[in-house]
């Protein structure tokens, strides 16, 4: 079981090898808004890579934030 709480999130659409670009943008968003991060990024794979072309894969990225 993963703990809940407040998260910042983004959806990456594209190949798994490019998820780092979206993760970097999400971490930059947190830093720009002075939102302290309290844990690692979670990845939720929405699309099935067996039936979805790489450029259409969808992955939700979620990063837990410190409570205000």
Automatic annotation (TrEMBL):
Any single Pfam family the record assigns to this protein: GyrI-like
GyrI-like small molecule binding domain mapped to chain residues: 2-65
InterPro entries: GyrI-like, Reg_factor_effector_dom_sf
Gene3D superfamilies: Regulatory factor, effector binding domain (3.20.80.10)
Domain of life: Bacteria
Protein name: GyrI-like small molecule binding domain-containing protein
Species of the source: Streptosporangium fragile
């Amino acid at each position: 079981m993963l703990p809940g709480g407040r998260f910042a999130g983004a959806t990456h659409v594209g190949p798994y090898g490019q998820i780092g670009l979206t993760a970097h943008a999400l971490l930059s968003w947190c830093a720009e808004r002075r939102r302290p991060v309290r844990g690692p990024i979670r990845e939720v794979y929405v699309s099935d890579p067996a039936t979805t072309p790489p450029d259409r894969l969808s992955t939700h990225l979620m990063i837990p934030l410190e409570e205000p």
